[in-house]
Amino acid sequence: MIEIKPVEHWDAVENLLKTPKKDNVFAMAAYDQDELLAAGAVALFDEHAELLEVVVPKQHEALNLAYGMGKSLLNFIDRRGIAHVVCSDDALEPLLRRLRFKKTDKVDEIGKYYSENEIYYLNLTNYFTNHC
What we know:
Elements: E1 2-6, E2 25-32, E3 35-44, E4 49-55, H1 65-78, E5 84-87, H2 93-98, E6 102-104, E7 119-123
Parallel strand pairs: 4-5
Antiparallel strand pairs: 1-2, 2-3, 3-4, 5-7, 6-7
């Protein structure tokens, strides 16, 4: 059975993720028993969070784990009371669109953090409680 859960020890995912461990950076990983299948990382700030990466190795792409990993990371953020999520990684665009991120150059709530480039933005208010 595949489980997606927060990473307790960063060394478990450091070979898969490019993101370095910091005090405000958290990772989640998908496991089938002890086998690492995928991982993702987010950075949490006072007023927003940033989706940093979602990585599914080629040998596990057929399991379609990216969407589940993305939703799990968003739930992790939401459960910490953070509503505003951004991502600046264009390589994640197909996943971000599926998760309902919108590309924008103007995010009034957190624009002070990301003013020079277009970013992907998602507001998590009612994200998990409204019907799709």
